[in-house]
Amino acid sequence: MRDFVRRVESSTPPDRDRAVDALRAFAIMGVVLGHWLVTALIEDSGTLRGASPLTFMPQLAPISWVLQTLAVFFLVGGVVGARGYASARARGTTYRQWVGARMIRLFRPAAVVLAVWAVAAVAMLAAGADEKTVRALFKLVWSPLWFLLVFAALTAMTPLVAKLHPLWPLAVVLHIDVIRFGLEGPAWLSSVNVVAGWLVPYCLGAAWSRGGLRSRTTRWSLLLGGAVTAAGLILWAGYPAAMVGVPGAEISNLDPPNLAAVAFGIAQCGAALLLLGPLRRVLERPAAWAVVAVVNLSAMTIFLWHQTAMIAVTAIGVPAGEALPGLHTVPDGGGWVLARLAWLPAFAVALAVCVAVFHTYERGRPTKTRKSGRIVREGRPAPAKLARRAQHHPPDTLCGDTTRGESQGLPSGSGRTPRARPDPDGRP
Fold it and tell me: What is the rounded (10 degree) CA torsion for 44, 48, 49, 53?
């Protein structure tokens, strides 16, 4: 393990902003733990159906404030997307080539998940499984994929929104909410917020890439302003307290994102920016950086397969003949929460198996370089082969694009970070 950590450390470019990778890893683990803790599969006469502990225990809503980390995803996506496109333009890469490569990296591993589950659904139905059970399981897998569609749309819009001020999409969200809730306008109008709402942190990331948001005053303003606004909307404007969707709730902050969710996301972005300095200091420790690097190498696979891991453990427990606490029982009390926490290691083991099996599809096909003929991957190296790749390949192959030296948002590393004037944290 010490040798592995040493190789990861030696393969990392000295000017890489490790805090960007740490923010992505934090966002990934927030989504994974959030889904594992607020999603339940209840066994009822041989049928599995979805449920949420927030329906029975609304006092647990503050948990969603910690585990709903999507704004951080889009913040990182904005900074990496803007930098990546600027780098591509400098190399003479066309927009079509740039965006095409990113769409392939996003949707190739997603297509594998859908294909595997399509086969699994047919097999379960052929074996006599209840149709409602199959539908509930498949929904758990494909419902998080909305994120990829929105992320792909914003990535494609990067040349247009790279210099867009975040106040413009924020104003759109505000007006949509006023029309929807204040003037009782049509509910379908809120679908505009699916793009406008997540465009706010994406634009903040793009502004960060241009050297903005460096002032600690600005970062504290984002944190405090967003938090106060979100709290006010919850306390006095009737917005829900939970920052995730709750089955049966009349209003969801997240589906589509409303003003409360966007304000909360702004606060998250402010907190993330304030943590850059401490994160960089922590990640100077080789062991801490190795953990972050490995998570980033399989970021997309973790995101796509974490629900499948939970379902697999749940399915294994079904033949036990009785509902297992925290796995098949109704999430209506503290006992369920404690039992679910005890199941998390099993979910993690199942996810590790999924990553080991499917991470290859995140990496891309092997191709030969023009100059040397050496075979490289268009995606990223597998975690299991990281040490060997780190020893024999250039630094850019670690957590980044092995062929281009830069990358995109969720499914890849942040690439080399260009040197810039020092920020308030004292780091480039």
Answer: 80
pLDDT in tens, 289-315: 999 998 998 899 999 999 999 999 988
Q: How confident is the model at residue 145 (pLDDT cuts 50, 70, 90)?
A: confident
Instruction: Report d(CA 386, CA 291) in Å as an integer.
Output: 12
Q: Name the H helices within 14-130.
A: 18-38, 53-56, 61-67, 70-90, 95-126
Q: Give the residue with greater pLDDT, 372 vs 257.
A: 257
Residue 158: Cβ within 10 Å count = 24
Integer-rounded Cα radius of gyration of the chain? 22
For residue 229, CA distances in Å to 61, 239, 255, 373, 375 come to: 17, 11, 19, 56, 52
Task: Give the CA distances from residue 340 to residues 61, 167, 246, in Å, rounded to whole numbers and listed in that order.
Answer: 16, 40, 18
Cis peptide before 256 (omega within 30 of 0): yes
pLDDT of residue 9: 87
Q: Which helix (H) or strand (E) holds 395?
A: none
User: Contact, 197 vs 269, CB < 8 A?
Assistant: no
Strand-pairing partners, residue 375, are 368
Q: What's the pLDDT score for residue 367?
A: 47
Using CA atoms, how far apart are residues 50 and 331, in angstroms rounded to an integer?
Answer: 10
Helix intervals (H) in 244-394: 259-274, 276-282, 286-297, 299-317, 334-358, 386-392
Q: Across-strand partners of 40?
A: 51
Give Cβ neighbours of residue 207 (< 8 Å, ≥ 6 apart). 78, 165, 166, 213
Average pLDDT rounded to a whole number, residues 323-347 = 90
- What's the pTM? 0.84
Residue 388: pLDDT over 50: no
Report how far residue 269's alpha carbon sits from residue 21's, in angstroms, rounded to the nearest whole number.
15
Nearest CA-CA partner of 77 in 174, 160, 153? 153
